[in-house]
Amino acid sequence: MINYPTSKLPDVGTSIFTVMSALANEHKAINLSQGFPDFNCPKPLMDLVTKYMREGFNQYAPMAGMPQLRHQIGQKTERMYGYQPDPDTEITVTSGATEALNAAITAVVKPGDEVVLLEPCYDSYAPVIRLCGGSPIYVPLALPNFSVDWDQVKKRISSRTRMVIINTPHNPTGAVIAKQDMDMLASLTSGSDILVLSDEVYEHMVFDGQQHYSALQHPQLRERSFVVSSFGKTYHTTGWKVGYAIAPPRLTAELRRVHQFTTFCTATPFQLAIADFIEEAQHYLQLPDFYQAKRDLFVELLRQTRFEAVPSAGTYFQLAKYSGITDAYDLEFAKRLTTGTGVAAIPVSAFYHDKTDHKYLRFCFAKSEETLRTAAEKLAKL
């Protein structure tokens, strides 16, 4: 009999996104759980992919990414944030933002290191930290607006802290980190060797006249940060898995050591198509208005239900409190909502290491108006 090794992640099961999407498919429910649009990407972008495929650009791309795309990322970053990273030494194209996050953590976190996480948080961070032999150190965001309590962050920083991970706009809550928050983070890490991983995949989805403030805009943070972005979110192409990481040369070199043995490179025709399409800046500049209209519609529709929703400040997610409907545990309520009502959502406890339940569900509103209205009609029957 084979003596199989013990699991490195014995308490980690199938992702909640996979679970809820499978349940939605099984029961033919409207899937507002997993974060993907139900509408297509721009046709000119699809046409560019086809063009490059037909022209024969179907082999390996350079490990760091196609030069054309890295150059355009540098130009776009300068336009948005006033800083132009070097395409050769500071920009790496990855197979989705999740790969970039994995590579950044794996590159620098060693056994015994601690990484500060703000909860609720995206579920990929902690498992990678643990696989590296590090320890996630959790700091809860402050309710009701899920703001950062920097005094609590300071208390959790120690001599073993290797990294602080932030996410803005924030998944799952939709909260947005302001410049003063970045100033606090810079102050807390000043004079130390602590690195920052800034997950900014929803950078173009900030509402109500607010602006996304990137770690790249803060000189003190920029020199110690990995900043991760996603073309999947920006161009409605989550299935293409094209993201990128920007970091100082020394950090980029370490990230690439991991990246080259993870995926090596990302699909060539997608990279070339995106490099051309980036020049159509109106697409990403109009995303705040595009998604705010969807948010406003969904929040208005929720007012016709028994859910309570404070409009999301960013991302394409909306939290809704259901304590006025039931006191059931959020995972059980989410499953019941999927199987009985026909609408799938994500229980927010899935984003806490100890499954803290504040009676919130996360809905994705990156959907057509028809989808949102139909979902709301079902929710109103509760």
TrEMBL record:
One of its GO terms (cellular component) is cytoplasm. The keyword Transferase applies. Pfam families: Aminotran_1_2 (PF00155). Residues 29-379 form the Aminotransferase class I/classII large domain. SUPFAM superfamilies: PLP-dependent transferases (SSF53383). One of its GO terms (molecular function) is kynurenine-oxoglutarate transaminase activity. Coiled coil: none annotated. Keywords: Aminotransferase, Pyridoxal phosphate, Transferase. Its cofactor is pyridoxal 5'-phosphate. Belongs to the class-I pyridoxal-phosphate-dependent aminotransferase family. This is Pyridoxal phosphate-dependent aminotransferase. It comes from Pontibacter mangrovi.
